[in-house]
Design goal:
Length: 707
């Protein structure tokens, strides 16, 4: 039972969980009202928790939202609640509580009657921890009673004992909710509050510059009026001191903007990398891919720094135009406008050289990385005199391109501001020589020229970084665009479990599949058809290039056929959706297309399961590893199944990696497992044991081998 009857009335039941997520998304401005009707999580399966996670993720995807299951330890539950919003918390008795935001020590929640209420953090914490508290409640009460703790000290002692005994116990608290990467950039920016920070930054810079102008205007008025007394100087000093908090505000807004804009950028690029069509980057080498990834860091740093400088310079340039427009002499204004156009030319010239420099640098990175990867082959098959010939030529070219780019940057950094100052002062010479008038207009024009000098200096430095960021963005644009690719969600009323409705129907039905690679005139597959039913064991054998791997990728949904029809349980991909399709078919790609990610072995094994994993998931993964002959490996690793593996962790042999790939596919719980030449590194005995396990565990099996 939950501790508060009031909380029980406010929470949502499980049959309205989809509606709760929709209401939360609409309240935050992320989901449209038209998407309010959503399916409830389907629990009629052998694993209700997995079905709940899957259906909830599909519901969120239809709303253009993303959910992430989270857990925390008992000791950190308060800190989690303080930063969890927006989220859907899972209370005992299958009740759910959407959290909109936190203010102070209260949470603003969306109740089942669609009204907003405030609940204390402690009330929600007690509800989440009640199940664990009840496990030790009787023993702790007995201990406190025996110790004769009286009065208010009893509650404090009880809380302290629970905190000490349950500190490391994990609690699955619910799901974090955020807009999906396929939503508009404005909605994602509102989630990170980027626009508010940008407005604050602009306002702070503008107000600071106005105060700076006002301070010097005040001083000038005192000088030209001939009665500069202590009061004028005090007002001047006060205005300058007022600049300090505005500068601090602008600096703080810049820092927070950099953090949040960087987080938004990295999240979108990561989503794009995961959704990128492999055929789009298949022609790129590992070095060029690494270079493009590094460009994301360049984009983040240069865009923020350059944007801040550019914004400052733009404000100052507008103010300089305003100052010069107040004078009677139009020559400085025309000279400033002409020089601004010259600055545009400098920027275009620099952009061309920056692009050339970036392309040369990425090519150099590709050469160096490929050389390091193939160093052993080069050492034994190429003469020593030729080892560095290609690198030397690339470095020479890079040096020449860098010189040209630095000369172009000199135009923005030095010639633009200093040249602007010189031509501006030159435009004042006729008025100075003519004389005969008041000194105030001349002083005002000189002030405008000096303001323009500051503006050009900031604009030059800012444009250099902004243009560098733009060129970096051009390199990573495929990742950015891929993030906007819409996922095939399927129809909301179609559940992934409905493919089991007819046990006599084949799991996979393929009819007349046709596929040709990009740029190829002849199809690699033409009229391929097959039926795979439960308990089928299929051997797919063929020569290199015959289309075996292509057919496997079509069946698993990694590629789409040019023509033909592929069904799972009688449903096509558009009806079933990508997520449900992946639940039914697990593909183990060829060795060079499969990977061990940097992380724990458990993480690599349970990629196709819910994360964070339950103890049942961990136990099943451990048992399957031992059944595949990986028991000695688990015994050798200090952390066991939680040992860090990958390129920067525990090193695994090819045979160990292949068995981990197979275990990963089996743990996905799919109805069909496809092995694409995935047992080539196993010795005969291990191969026999692995195939026996696959024969036993895989509901249906397709084994692709090279003839």
């Amino acid at each position: 039972m939950i501790p508060s009857p009031e909380l029980e009335k406010l929470a949502w039941p499980i049959d309205r969980l989809g509606e709760a997520v929709a209401a939360l998304g609409y309240a935050r401005g992320w989901a449209d009202a038209a998407h309010g009707v959503q399916v409830a999580p389907h629990l009629g399966s052998d694993d209700p928790e997995a079905a709940l996670e899957f259906e909830l993720s599909r519901t969120a995807a239809h709303l253009r939202l993303e959910i992430e299951a989270v857990e925390t330890d008992y000791a950190g539950i308060r800190a989690f609640l303080a930063r969890c919003a927006p989220a859907v918390l899972r209370l005992p008795e299958n009740l759910f509580l959407p959290v909109l935001e936190r203010r102070g020590k209260t949470l603003h929640v969306l109740c089942a009657d669609l009204k907003r209420r405030r609940l204390s953090l402690e009330t929600v914490r007690e509800a989440l921890c009640r199940a664990l508290d009840d496990e030790l409640a009787a023993d702790i009460d007995t201990l406190i009673s025996a110790a004769r703790v009286q009065g208010i000290r009893q509650a404090r002692a009880r809380a302290a004992l629970l905190e000490e005994l349950l500190a490391d116990r994990r609690i699955r608290v619910g799901w974090l909710v955020r807009p999906a990467c396929t939503t508009s950039l404005s909605r994602q920016a509102s989630d990170y509050r980027v626009r508010g920070l940008l407005s604050t930054l602009f306002a702070a810079h503008t107000l600071a510059f106005l105060l700076w102008l006002g301070a010097w205007w005040l001083l000038g008025q005192g000088v030209f009026s001939g009665h500069l007394d202590i009061g004028w100087l005090q007002a001047w000093a006060l205005l300058l001191l007022t600049l300090l908090p505005l500068r601090l505000l602008a600096s703080g807004a810049t820092g927070w903007f950099a953090i949040r804009a960087g987080a938004l950028l990295k999240r979108r690029l990561l989503a794009g990398a995961l959704r990128l069509d492999p055929d789009e980057i298949r022609h790129l080498g590992i070095g060029r891919l690494l270079g493009r990834i590094l460009e994301a860091e360049v984009l983040e740093q240069m865009a923020v720094a350059g944007g801040s400088l550019g914004l400052t310079g733009l404000v100052e340039l507008v103010m300089a135009f305003g100052i010069l427009s107040l004078t009677q002499d139009s020559r400085p204004l025309l000279v400033l406008a002409t020089w601004t156009l010259a600055g545009v030319g400098f920027a275009v010239y620099y952009l061309r050289h920056q692009r050339n420099w970036t392309e040369t640098r990425l090519a150099l990175t590709d050469i160096l990385v490929e050389g390091m990867v193939g160093h052993r082959t080069r050492a034994v098959q190429e003469s020593r005199e030729r080892w560095n010939a290609r690198e030397d030529h690339a470095l020479t070219s890079y040096y020449q391109v860098s010189l040209a780019r630095d000369r172009a940057a000199l135009n923005l950094r030095a010639i633009l501001p200093r040249g602007g100052l010189l031509v501006g002062i030159a435009s004042l010479v006729p008025a100075f020589v003519a004389g005969g008038g008041s000194a105030v207009p001349l002083a005002l024009s000189l002030g405008g020229v000096l303001a323009a000098y500051l503006a050009f200096r900031h604009l030059g430095e800012g444009l250099e970084q902004i243009l560098g960021a733009w060129v970096a963005f051009e390199q990573i644009r495929p990742f950015w665009r891929a993030a906007a690719h819409s996922e095939v969600l399927g129809h909301p009323e179609v559940s992934g479990n409905k493919t089991d409705s007819d046990p006599e129907r084949p799991i996979i039905e393929a009819h007349n599949l046709i596929y040709r690679h990009a740029g190829q005139s002849n199809p690699v597959l033409c009229g391929a058809s097959l039926h795979i039913g439960a308990d089928d064991r299929v051997l797919l054998e063929g020569s290199s290039g015959s289309g075996k791997s292509t057919l496997a990728s079509l069946l698993s949904g990694q590629r789409l056929p040019e023509a033909g029809l592929c069904l799972i349980g009688g449903l096509d991909r558009a009806s079933l959706g990508e997520r449900a399709w992946r639940r039914h078919i697990a593909l183990v790609p060829q060795f060079h297309e499969n990977h061990i990610f940097m992380g724990s072995l458990a993480f690599n094994l349970l990629l196709g399961r819910n994360w964070p994993p339950s103890q049942k998931d961990i136990d099943e993964a451990d048992a399957l590893c031992r059944a595949l002959g990986l028991g000695p490996l688990l015994e050798r690793m200090p952390g066991g199944i939680f040992q860090l593996v990958g390129e920067t962790g525990w090193q695994l042999s090819h045979g160990e990696r292949e068995r981990i790939y197979i275990a990963r596919a089996l743990l996905q719980g799919a109805k069909v497992v496809i092995l694409d030449e995935s047992v080539s590194s196993l010795d005969p005995q291990t191969l026999r044991d692995t195939m026996a396990l696959l024969w036993k565990r895989a509901p249906a099996l397709i084994l692709v081998v090279h003839a």
